[in-house]
């Protein structure tokens, strides 16, 4: 699924310059526990989380994830955006809660 | 590629910078042209270890040696030690504080993940003295 479609489906805001509408995500992980994310082995993944701290970006970077969606209207601070910029990870935010966001993406074809 | 050694000092005071050493190792491995999947295994294992050092042991030192055959990691801390390694290796078991859990860690997946992503892991621990964890990730895809 293209990131452009993720943005449309989640009514998401784009929070940094690493976003490219043609970036392809092949899988997604919805989770607030970063150790569970680190146990998740998928390529070109999207992380959806309600957790907002620098470890979210570091976790996504270690897992070579393409983008992070902060759910429930959470807005990361400058430090987090800067870390994501350094890592080349797109940062999005949506007002939708985690369960809803995952459900929408799953129903639209992001099954893995 | 000849042997390449690097050492990182882990600050135990500030959880917000935990993971910086793992990010730096990732960049080193990328610059050495290591396969991305191997890099992911090694850096995730080190990241979990680094987080543990900050959460449980007030920091420590990580030595990494990269050879054409393997990535060799030594994580040394002067923390409280691990009373029961088998229990600590159980998925879901954790002694982390609620504060750490609120930050997204302390789910009891750290040591299991470290073992999962490495080809060899050995833990040497002594109560009240500290813990040394040795991990090897083979870089040869064969």
β-strand percent of chain A reads 15-25%
Strand order of the largest sheet of chain A: 1-5-4-3-2
Describe the sheet with the most strands of chain B.
5 strands, antiparallel
- The poorly predicted ranges of chain A are none
Q: What radius of gyration of chain B results from the CA coordinates?
A: 14 Å
Helical residue percent of chain A?
25-40%
Q: What's the number of helices of chain B?
A: 5
Can you tell me the overall shape of chain A? globular
Record the strand order, biggest sheet of chain B.
1-2-3-5-4
Provide the residue-averaged pLDDT of chain B.
93
The assembly state of the depicted protein chains is: heterodimer
Low-confidence stretches of chain B: none
Largest interface: A-B, 21 and 27 residues
Helix vs. strand class of chain A: alpha/beta
Give the CATH class of chain B: Alpha Beta
Measure the end-to-end span of chain A: 11 Å
Portion in strands of chain B: 25-35%
Question: What is the CATH homologous superfamily assignment of chain A?
Answer: HprK N-terminal domain-like
Domain count of chain B: the total is 1
